[in-house]
Each structure stands twice: as C-alpha cells, then as structure tokens.
Specification:
Length: about 220
C-alpha cells in the first residue's frame, strides 16, 4: 500500500485499529489472478510473538483450497471514508479529495486443524457478542451437537502470521489549521461516516475552534 509519510500510522495503532474493526477483505492470488472475500476475523497479539489473524471461509470458497497450499496473503481493513469538496476549505485553490482510514496486514497462511477451528469459532463469536453487552452472549454451545458438527465441516479455518503491517489514515494532516477546522465542521454535518472522520480530525488537533460540537 502506498502510504504518504504525512498519513502513516505506526504499527501499534495499525494493529489496534484492525483488531477493533474485525472485518476486512482477505486477498490471495491464484495463477496470477487475485481471489478475495470480505470476512470477519480475530486478531491475537497476546503471546508477545508475531500477531496471528484468524478467519474462516465456506468450504466451497476458492480461498479454502488455496489455503492448503500456504502462500502470503493480504488483508485490507477499511474504516470510515468520505469525499471532501474544495468548497469546504477556508483557503482557495483546493481540489477534491477523499479522506479515509486503512490498514493492510500481510503474511503466510495455513489451514487450521479441527481442534484449532473449534477454538477459533469460540473466540470469534465471543469477540463480537461481547460488543453487544448487556445482551447475554451467544455461544457455539447453544447449537445442537449434530448441527454444530455439520457447520464445522462446512467451513475451513485459516490462520495468518502477520509479518507486514501498513496503516494510512488520511485526515488532512498536511493542511493548515484553518482548513483542517473548516473541513471537520463541514463533515460533522454530513452523515455517520463523514462525522466519524470529522471526530478523528478533531482528535488530531483538539486545540482548534470547531464551532458547533463534532459528534464523537
């Protein structure tokens, strides 16, 4: 991924963003042709070694067969993004642009064993169910055993050892304070994704005056 120095995100922040997002485009290559699927994932950074990224695919997904051969894959994790009109800047002679949050993780993959896959499903569901608290968490144990076994055979768990981490948050870091504040004010009024970008911009320069409060 091309990352202009002004927009570069450090490794720790990039991994934290990917873990919190938990969803990305998994990309492999077959005979010179890209193969990709949007998938939820679980990112493990707990043992002090290289981070591990876990996900699973339907057995009929071409990625399932490719995983058996290993290789280096890429996972693209995107956050909110938004268009910026030149009319929103405080200064003249601006051009249209797009602001975004993006992290890419790369590394070798391998299929999981059945036991590893069982643990993966428990970790993945626990992660996302935990975000729904105080709702009581759903667990795989709530499935009938026969149904659970059938579903386990219908998927292939895949583990990636994360060797490369690249993050780019384009949030107008290279613009003047006046332009930064003016664009943040405009984006704060233009829907959820734009407002989330605006909130990130405010967090970068909290000392500026933004007029009306920007949603967090």
């Amino acid at each position: 991924m091309y990352v202009p120095p002004a927009f570069a995100l450090d490794r720790t922040a990039s991994l934290a963003f990917a873990a919190a997002r938990g969803f990305g485009l998994v990309i492999a290559c077959q005979d010179g042709r890209p193969v990709a699927s949007p998938l939820p994932f679980w990112l493990d950074q707990s043992d002090g070694a290289a981070p591990r990224l876990e996900f699973h695919v339907a057995r009929g997904n071409p990625l399932a067969a490719l995983a058996a051969h290993g290789g280096t894959w890429l996972v693209s994790v995107l956050g909110p993004d938004t268009y910026v009109s030149p009319d929103w800047y405080a200064s003249a002679d601006q051009v249209p642009t797009w602001l975004y949050q993006s992290v890419q993780l790369g590394g070798p993959v391998r299929p999981m064993t059945a036991e590893q896959q069982r643990g993966h499903l428990e970790r993945l569901s626990a992660t996302f169910e935990g975000r729904l608290a105080p709702k009581p968490a759903w667990t795989p144990g709530k499935l009938a055993p026969a149904r659970h076994d059938m579903l386990m055979k219908a998927i292939v768990g895949v583990e990636m050892t994360v060797e490369t981490v690249e993050g780019s948050f384009k949030l107008n870091q290279h613009k003047s304070d006046a332009d930064h504040a003016a664009v943040a004010r405009a984006l704060a009024r233009r829907g959820e994704a734009a407002a989330r970008i605006a909130a990130r911009m405010v967090a970068l320069r909290p000392q500026l005056s933004y007029g009306e409060p920007v949603p967090s």
